[in-house]
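look at this one:
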Amino acid sequence: MKHKLQLATWNRKEHFLFFKQMEEPFFGVTTTVDCTKAYEKAKAIGVSFFTYYLHKTLVAVNTIACFRYRILNDEIYVFDRIDASATILREDGTFGFSQIEYAANIEQFAANTKKEIARIQTTTGLFTREFADNLIHFSALPWINFTSFSHARSFTWPDSCPKITVGKMRDENGKKTMALSVHVHHGLMDGYHVGEFLATFQSEMDA
């Protein structure tokens, strides 16, 4: 479900109108997150680390209101729930775009993730189903400890979907960390809101 945001009374109306006219309205940041406790918790409850941090990503996304905003036909809509379109690697080295339904309960989310990963393995190509608008774009690059990140984008394609990427987990003296990149539409949010997301995500990973 979604509802239309009333632009006339929104305190960011001027910001939205300014940034939405740009050829590249997205901005991005890359940071490092501590995943020591999260990795141990994932092992303890028997879910993959990928599933665990994707779930915590969606918890944070669904907590921060502007991460649920999407621009559809030049109107801003607020979705009640955001799911994940994660890139899923196949045995032949290709990947497909998934659609994993968010669930607050980690066991249910793990079941959703496992089912969708299995489905992707039976398909070919990028687009394996009809996709909804209530998504984030999510990628994991467990082979690369990156310090910056950019995305392939068509500037003529209307897009307001946040793009979140994680890198290789590193272990130094018992502390596990990984890179995290967040790219968002500046018409919908600012650095302050990305900071809120990162703080919420780290808190969830530490819980």
Observations:
- Strands lie at 2-4, 26-34, 69-72, 75-79, 83-89, 95-97, 135-140, 163-166, 170-172, 175-185.
